[in-house]
UniProtKB/TrEMBL annotation:
Keyword hit for DNA-binding: no
Alphabetical list of InterPro entries matching this protein: Multihaem_cyt_sf, Paired_CXXCH_1
Source organism superkingdom: Bacteria
Ranges where the Doubled CXXCH motif domain occurs: 47-91, 98-138, 146-184, 195-232, 243-283, 303-352
Gene3D superfamilies from the UniProt entry: 1.10.287.3080, Cytochrome C3
Protein name: Cytochrome C
Source lineage: Bacteria, Pseudomonadati, Thermodesulfobacteriota, Desulfuromonadia, Geobacterales
Name of a matching Pfam family: Paired_CXXCH_1
């Protein structure tokens, strides 16, 4: 009788196996038989329970027959995030929680059995497709992309579960950036001058964190991004003459460091060195730039501001309504008679009454007795501008009067200027030799009457 009963059970088991191939009645039969769940575990990174063949950690059998036609014979051991929290640490305790985590939908991002990428993520280590499934892709596809964005390493900067920082950042913006830009921090600490947005604000004040149409991930192109804080520069951009570097690729960054510097004004070097980076050649531009480096090289006498290395004392580095980007008025023509206001740039440092009076004993030493010879040259007759006699930058002679002569078209006019303790003399290419003396004036009255 017992033998008959065993035979009946064996026949029944054979019938069940024939109808339900995956029925797990034997210990060595797994869920991944050739007939059943063959796709599970066929990925590069498997969930640890799957790797160990322990399906019961997440699934519990609710019906002795499996598979059960038209119904389920297994259920999850817990629902939503509670299932994962049976093994993993719980999330949701920090200030900002990723919405799928908050909703307990771990499977939105993670594959429960295995994924091509680490952490059971789908799509390999490139997280772009995964994150763009919810986030707007437009912000990540612009011409210039942040390195982590370019390779799909979103979680390099963002915590995918929760954070006490905005945007789920792994730390404050400053700290997050410096984790990669370590060389930046070292140089910053050694620099005496720091751009206020770098010192006080997040990097994202100027830079887009994901992608941008502008170089260096700037939110706006230069100089637009700079003038949003420096409105004075915007005013200069509307003037008659604008310094060319501002209008070229690089904008403000052609002369200034955007973050920190060892020089005032965040210049990339001292004032003169920065200017001579361009003004050391006669090949750039149309018409070509004057080669100021060559002009001042080896000269004994430098104009006072240049002696201090301050080109900005006379020239505006951004823009000006005046000739040669000068900070004050000065004629562009060679001969212009003095009127109040037209020699402003020179008279802002030199005696402001230098050209106002035909006779003086205090406003200039260039006089014959009381006769103001600056007045004679600049106010009377043809009105010679300062540069007819004086070099604006450097000279081999005193008073910036060049021994080689001052440029007059393609000719250098010889001045032949000589000083004495109480006066001097000159014999230039524009008139015969004349002398002057402050204490014992030369008498040229009869000669002047004859010329009238």
């Amino acid at each position: 009788m017992e033998t008959i009963s065993m035979n009946v059970r064996s026949v029944g088991l054979l019938l069940l196996t024939a109808i339900f191939p995956c029925v797990a009645q034997a210990a060595d039969v797994s869920c991944k038989t050739a007939e059943c769940h063959t796709s599970i575990g066929g990925t590069q990174n498997m969930h640890e329970p799957v790797k160990e063949g322990d399906c019961s950690g997440c699934h519990k059998q609710t019906n002795p027959l499996h598979p059960l036609k038209g119904a389920k014979s297994f259920a999850m051991t817990a629902q939503g995030a509670a299932l994962c929290y049976q093994c993993h640490d719980t999330f949701g305790k920090k200030k900002n929680v990723h919405p799928p985590v908050k909703d307990g939908e771990c499977a939105y991002c993670h594959k429960p059995h295995g994924g091509a990428g680490r952490f059971l993520l789908e799509g390999g280590d490139d997280q772009t497709a995964l994150c763009m499934g919810c986030h707007d892709a437009a912000d990540f596809k612009k011409k210039v992309r942040h390195g982590p964005v370019a390779v799909g390493s979103c979680s390099r900067c963002h915590n995918p579960h929760e954070s006490d920082e905005k945007k789920l950042l792994r730390g404050p913006v400053w700290e997050s950036c410096l984790k990669c830009h370590a060389d930046f921090l070292k140089t910053l600490q050694e620099s005496p001058f720091i751009h206020p947005p770098v010192k006080k604000g997040p990097c994202t004040s100027c830079h887009a964190p994901h992608s941008s149409e502008n170089g260096q991930l700037l939110k706006k192109k230069m100089p637009d991004i700079c003038i949003s804080c420096h409105p004075g520069v915007e005013k200069k951009l509307r003037m008659k003459l604008v310094h060319k570097p501002l209008q070229e690729t690089g904008g403000c960054g052609n002369c200034h460091s955007s973050h920190f510097s060892k020089a005032k004004g965040l210049l990339s070097g001292d004032d003169m060195s920065v200017c001579l980076e361009c003004h050391a050649t006669d090949k750039l531009g149309k018409p070509p730039l004057k080669n100021i480096k060559k002009e001042i090289e080896g000269k004994k006498y430098l104009h006072g501001p240049l002696e201090l290395g301050e080109c900005r004392a006379c020239h505006d580095p951004h823009g000006s309504d005046n000739f040669r980007l000068l900070k004050g008025s000065y004629p562009s023509d060679l001969y212009v008679a003095y009127k109040d206001g037209i020699y402003g740039v020179c008279l802002s440092c030199h005696e402001k009454n230098l050209l106002r009076f035909p006779e003086t004993t205090i406003y200039t030493k260039f006089r014959n007795g009381n006769r103001n010879l600056h007045y004679v040259h600049v106010v009377n007759r043809k009105g010679r501008t300062c540069r007819v006699c004086h070099e604006p930058h450097a000279s081999t002679g005193e008073k910036l009067i060049s021994k080689e002569g001052v440029q007059f078209g393609d000719w250098k006019i010889p001045i032949n200027f000589m000083l004495t303790p109480t006066g001097g003399s000159c014999s230039p290419g524009c008139h015969r030799p004349f002398a002057y003396d402050r204490e014992k004036p030369e008498d040229y009255r009869s000669e002047e009457k004859g010329q009238k």
